[in-house]
Write a structure and sequence with these properties.
With about 230 residues, this protein is of the alpha/beta class. The protein has a single domain, classed as 3-Layer(aba) Sandwich (Rossmann fold). About 45% of the residues lie in helices and about 20% in strands. The chain is built from 9 helices and 7 strands. It has a 7-stranded mixed sheet with strand order 3-2-1-4-5-7-6, sandwiched between helices. Helix 3 packs across helix 4. The longest helix has 15 residues. The protein is globular, with a radius of gyration of 16 Å.
Length: about 230
């Protein structure tokens, strides 16, 4: 058995406030930081775990792009985020969908409520990673699927570029954009976050089996897929 993994250094209220502040530029920054590839990665995540007609939870949904990808894949999706400013933007994109303000570490749903859970670029913001994973497992039906899309630090040829881009250019952007502190927090949160192998191990300890992953974007993003054991 491995040790418990924690990822955050900010209190939940501080993280919520930070995301409230960057909500106006969140989508634009995602497009810029990924050269627009984040949309494709979200579609891949949804296709990996969403089945038509199933009940889907998109945790840490932000402005709703992954939830919308899950709906496009045929799911009946509920989006959850603890930032009301993020949810306000999600509601503008799809007012007919269900958007719930809640903490992913304490979800307001009964056990075994969902057929699949997706989470994109959000799980590293949980102070207690394994506790959050156990909560996602709790609301999944037996055999339910988890699709987790998250930034990781590349080990290959893109590593020097990633360092310049993510540790240099992203924080620099924060000097001229709303919620500038977030763009220093973002690289730091990625540095603290476990690599793909360790994240897979944390998923297994949290009650998931059949854990696998693939690297995207030259190794800067990992898509993990797992099944509730």
């Amino acid at each position: 058995m491995g040790s418990r993994v924690t990822t955050g250094t900010l209190a939940p209220d501080e993280v919520r406030t930070m995301f409230d502040r960057i909500a106006p530029v969140y989508d634009a920054m995602n497009r810029a930081m990924t050269l627009g590839l984040d949309r494709r990665w979200r579609r891949l995540t949804a296709r990996a775990v969403v089945r038509r007609g199933e009940k889907i939870l998109d945790a840490c949904c932000g402005t709703g792009d992954l939830a919308l990808a899950g709906r496009a894949a045929g799911g009946d999706v509920v989006g959850v985020d603890f930032s009301e400013a993020m949810l306000a933007r999600a509601r503008r994109k799809a007012p007919e969908m269900e958007w719930v303000q809640a903490d992913a570490a304490a979800l307001p749903f009964p056990d075994e409520s969902f057929d699949a859970v997706t989470v994109g670029f959000g799980i590293r913001n949980l102070a207690d990673l394994e506790g959050g994973l156990r909560e996602l497992a709790r609301v999944l039906k037996p055999g339910g699927r988890l699709g987790c899309l998250e930034i990781t630090r590349p080990r290959g040829i893109l590593r020097p570029f990633f360092r310049v881009w993510f540790d240099g250019l992203v924080p620099a952007a924060g000097k001229v954009l709303p919620g500038g502190a977030a763009y220093s927090y973002l690289p730091a949160s990625v540095r603290r976050f476990p690599g793909p192998e360790d994240l897979a191990a944390a998923m297994r300890r949290a009650g998931f089996g059949q854990v696998g992953w693939r690297l995207l974007g030259g190794g800067i993003v990992a898509l993990h897929v797992a099944t509730k054991a």
